[in-house]
């Protein structure tokens, strides 16, 4: 399976990542990607950029040779109401929004609380991708999550970093297998993301692809396979 886009990558602006945008662009081009998405954390995470960072994306060129750049955000879910750390007035100015739960922003709650937080975040029409719903520290009703993603037309992220042996997230492999099984059964789109915090991992989806082939996941549900699928992710904002 050839993948053409990586929409989950961080730069030094996130405060705990180690490459510049320019280095990430060079890595994406070397990997032969068609589309790179920059998705720095919102300001809720310590060391994250202030909202002005996201309001100034207009100064960034969006094309580099054959590579198209998107400037988005990984917004932090801040509570069990699914509130994000940036106002919609800012989120509507960026190219796309991933919403994710991080322990530095919202403590793990009960399964009902974590699931409600994720579903409510997806009900925000600006949220297009649910980031790493694969963390055992946040018990989730994954079937409810997948069905809500279908209802809200949100992509479920398959996060390659969650499969790293040193990932802070726990249970990545089992939880991703469960997500894949549910997404295949309910015909819900997935988007593979590397969640790169350094340029060297951009476009490297090997661990995720292994799991996809292990469960024989339907290729037509993988949004990364065609540049055109950006239409589905961005809708009329393309
Ligand atoms: Zn994250
Ligand atoms: Zn991330």
In short:
With about 240 residues, this protein is an alpha/beta fold.
Features:
single chain, 238 residues, alpha/beta, TIM Barrel, 8-stranded mixed beta sheet, 8 helices, binds zinc ion
Record the SSE blueprint.
Elements: E1 5-6, H1 21-30, E2 35-41, H2 51-55, E3 63-64, E4 67-76, H3 88-91, E5 97-100, H4 111-123, E6 127-130, H5 142-152, E7 155-159, H6 172-186, E8 190-193, H7 206-214, H8 230-234
Parallel strand pairs: 1-2, 2-4, 4-5, 5-6, 6-7, 7-8
Antiparallel strand pairs: 3-4
Tell me, briefly, the overall form: globular
CATH T-level fold name? TIM Barrel
Compressed to H and E, one letter per element, the order equals: EHEHEEHEHEHEHEHH
Q: CATH H-level name... which superfamily?
A: Metal-dependent hydrolases
Name of the CATH architecture: Alpha-Beta Barrel
Backbone CA Rg: 16 Å
Number of domains: 1
- Residue stretches low in confidence (pLDDT < 50, at least 5 long) are none
| Distance between the first and last residues' Cα | 25 Å
Please give the number of β-strands: 8
Q: How would you classify the helix and strand content by structural class?
A: alpha/beta
Strand content: 15-25%
Q: State the major sheet.
A: 8 strands, mixed
Arithmetic mean of pLDDT:
97
Helicity level, as a percent range? 25-40%
Bound molecules: zinc ion
- Name of the level-1 CATH class: Alpha Beta
Continuous helix count: 8
Describe the overall structure.
- With 238 residues, this protein is of the alpha/beta class.
- The chain has a single domain (5-233), classed as TIM Barrel, CATH 3.20.20.140.
- It has eight helices and eight strands, in the order βαβαββαβαβαβαβαα.
- It has helices at residues 21-30, 51-55, 88-91, 111-123, 142-152, 172-186, 206-214, 230-234, and strands at 5-6, 35-41, 63-64, 67-76, 97-100, 127-130, 155-159, 190-193.
- Strands 1, 2, 3, 4, 5, 6, 7 and 8 form an eight-stranded mixed beta sheet that branches.
- α4 packs parallel to α5 (142-152) and α5 crosses α6.
- The longest helix is centred in the last third of the chain and has 15 residues, at 172-186.
- The radius of gyration is 16 Å and the shape is globular.
- The mean pLDDT is 97.
- Bound molecules: zinc ion (2 copies).
- One zinc ion is lined by residues 74, 100, 102, 131-132.
């Amino acid at each position: 399976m050839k993948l053409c886009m990586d929409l989950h990558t961080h730069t030094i602006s996130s405060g705990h990542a180690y490459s510049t945008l320019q280095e990430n662009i060079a890595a994406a081009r070397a990997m032969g990607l068609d589309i790179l998405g920059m998705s720095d954390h919102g300001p809720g995470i310590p060391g994250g950029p202030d909202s002005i960072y996201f309001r100034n994306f207009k100064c960034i060129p969006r094309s580099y040779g054959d590579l198209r750049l998107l400037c988005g955000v990984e917004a932090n879910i801040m509570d069990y109401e699914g509130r994000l750390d940036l106002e919609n007035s800012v989120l509507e100015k960026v190219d796309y929004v991933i919403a994710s739960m991080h322990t530095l922003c919202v403590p793990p709650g009960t399964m009902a609380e974590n699931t409600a937080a994720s579903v409510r975040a997806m009900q925000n029409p600006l949220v297009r991708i649910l980031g790493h719903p694969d963390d055992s520290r946040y018990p989730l009703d994954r079937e409810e999550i997948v069905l809500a993603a279908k209802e809200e037309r949100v992509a479920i992220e398959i996060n390659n970093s969650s499969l790293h042996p040193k990932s802070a997230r726990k249970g990545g492999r089992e939880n991703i297998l469960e997500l894949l099984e549910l997404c295949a059964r309910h015909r819900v789109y997935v988007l593979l993301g590397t969640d790169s915090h350094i340029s060297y991992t951009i476009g490297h989806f090997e661990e995720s692809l292994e799991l996809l082939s292990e469960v024989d996941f339907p290729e037509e549900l993988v949004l990364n396979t065609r540049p055109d699928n950006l239409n589905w992710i961005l809708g009329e904002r393309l």
